[in-house]
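Hi V.,

You were right to ask for the full record rather than a summary. Here it is.
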Amino acid sequence: MQLSITHTTRYDYAPPVDVAQHIACLRPRTTVAQQLLSHQLSVSPTPSQCRASVDAFGNQRSFLSLQIPHDRLEVTATSVVQTRSLNMTAVALPWEQAAEHFRYRADAVYDADVEFRFPSQHVPRHAEFA
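Predicted structure:
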């Protein structure tokens, strides 16, 4: 299924601001479940600097710098993605197991490594890494 997505964020400032710097994370990722066909970011007022980078998780971020006084900032992201059906029955946990896995426990110790437990487009799961 092809989806057209438009997202607008608007900030109104009182009093006006002279300088502003922002990070916008509005570009959809291409994944197993979807392909990004097009993406456009429009910003008003026009930033004096706009550059893109990719974070450690593969998300694209847009850094915006406005060096002129302004009382409103409007950022609109327009994207088109093509989604794909996935057969999740082979990998899905039964509801009871999934619910137990994610159940909150007040005495649980935070495990920062959990953020890196699953494969990504940058680091696939491989037996040599186990």
